[in-house]
Amino acid sequence: MSNTNDTNDTNDTGNISNMNDMSDDTFLHATPAERMALIEARLGAALAPLASITVRDDSAQHAGHAGASAGGHYSVTIVAAAFAGKPRVARHRLVYDALADAMQRGIHALAITAYTPEEFDLLSR
Predict the structure, then answer these.
(1) Tell me: the pLDDT tens digits for 8-44?
(2) What's the CA gap between 122 and 106, in Å, rounded?
(3) CB-based burial of residue 61 (10 Å sphere; 0-12 exposed, 13-18 middle, 19+ buried)?
(4) Is pLDDT at 107 greater than 70 in this prediction?
(5) What span, in angstroms and rounded, lies between the C-alpha atoms of 31 and 18?
(6) Which residues face 76 on adjacent strands?
(7) Would you list the domain boundaries of the chain?
(8) Helix (H/G/I), strand (E/B), else coil: 105
(9) What is the pLDDT of residue 30?
């Protein structure tokens, strides 16, 4: 199902069909799996092409801590050429910019690990 306006539709299985649109509190009302898919889709669109992305929901590890009810805790590991020549702070800013509305509507904490493809290849050796 395509989505040509700013509203969010669901397909027959209940999945959110426009993963890049987080308006109308889509992120807040999403399931944990949908939230991770939304994060991945947003980062994929903003930092394309991605060599790799891993999104992990760490919320259960933070249950009961102050602020935990305000949103989830996530870890992302991203490998993208868009990070080339940028220091860590600039890389993190790119990620935060891509997720700006979700940071206000359901992400309480985000751990970011960002590599260029070349840096990631060196780690694998």
Answers:
(1) 333 333 443 444 454 557 887 888 899 999 999 999 9
(2) 34
(3) exposed
(4) yes
(5) 15
(6) 55, 112
(7) 26-123
(8) coil
(9) 85
Domain 26-123 has CATH 3.30.300.90: yes
Please list, in sequence order, all residues whose beta carbon lies within 8 angstroms of the beta carbon of residue 13, skipping any fewer than 6 positions away. Answer: none
| Structure letter (DSSP) for residue 9 | -
pLDDT of 66: 56
Query: Whole-prediction pTM value?
Result: 0.76
Task: Give dist(CA 95, CA 78) in Å, integer.
Answer: 9
| Token pair recorded at residue 95 | 């990620």
b (16+ CB within 10 A) / e for 75-87: ebebbbebbeeee
> For residues 22 and 42, is the Cβ–Cβ distance under 8 A?
yes
Percent of the chain predicted with pLDDT > 70? 73
